[in-house]
Amino acid sequence: MCVAADHLDVHGNNRFRELCRLMQSVFHFEYHDKLEALKNSYMTFDLFCKPVAEDVEVWFGLAAWLGCQSN
User: Fold this and answer.
1) Taking residues 11-31, what's their average pLDDT?
2) For residues 43 and 51, what is the distance between their CA atoms, to the nearest angstrom?
3) What is the distance between the alpha carbons of residues 14 and 2, in angstroms, rounded to a whole number?
4) Is the dihedral of CA 13, 16, 20, 25 positive or negative?
5) Three-class SS string for 19-68?
6) pTM of whole model > 0.70?
7) Which residues of 29-45 are buried (b: 16+ CB within 10 A; e: fewer)?
8) Three-state SS at 3
9) pLDDT at 43
10) DSSP conformation class of 8
11) Average pLDDT of the segment spanning 45-65
12) pLDDT at 53
């Protein structure tokens, strides 16, 4: 929208596009970090997921408590 309105010269357009790409990357990685934190928080409740090394004891303890067998 800003680039199409032709308010900036060619150099300004390129710098604005680069700024937009950098902001897109920042938002993407922040979202990804939050998503991974949520997945890790709820991993212990998902009996079908494969546990990661630090959560193995918690996962197997919960599975045993619920009477489930691990694969």
Assistant:
1) 91
2) 7
3) 12
4) positive
5) HHHHHHHHHHHHHHHHHHHHHHHHHHHCCCCCCCHHHHHHHHHHHHHHCC
6) no
7) eeeeeeeeeeeeeeeee
8) coil
9) 74
10) S
11) 63
12) 53
